[in-house]
């Protein structure tokens, strides 16, 4: 999996990793934490957790649900938070905002000169070459 990720990609990974680490707010760490921290560092992933517990059941609170993004997307993430209402599974709902990622501009059909286009099709010429001629 490591070899297939282009670090320029804008990737969000969220999950119940069952790993405790001070890096994402847990007061202690466990064995899974070391592997996960190394994996995230190797891929230059950033954790967006702010220290709020993401799992609550009775008196048990833990920080096992983690949100990672690639470095190229990290600055576009804002407002990460754990919602303060009952989640039936114990895993709290996490929400955040992703600022607009550039979109492919839509074509404006109204500016297409259909007579030139059909002329190109009829004459077998490319539209690009005919559009450069008056």
UniProtKB/TrEMBL annotation:
Which part of the chain is the Endonuclease/exonuclease/phosphatase domain? 9-94
Which SUPFAM superfamilies does the record match to this protein? DNase I-like
Identify a single GO molecular function assigned to this protein. catalytic activity
User: Pfam families, per this entry?
Assistant: Exo_endo_phos_2
| Residue stretches in coiled coil | none
**What name appears for this protein in its UniProt entry?**
Endonuclease/exonuclease/phosphatase domain-containing protein
Q: Cite the InterPro entries for this sequence.
A: Endo/exonu/phosph_ase_sf, Endo/exonuclease/phosphatase
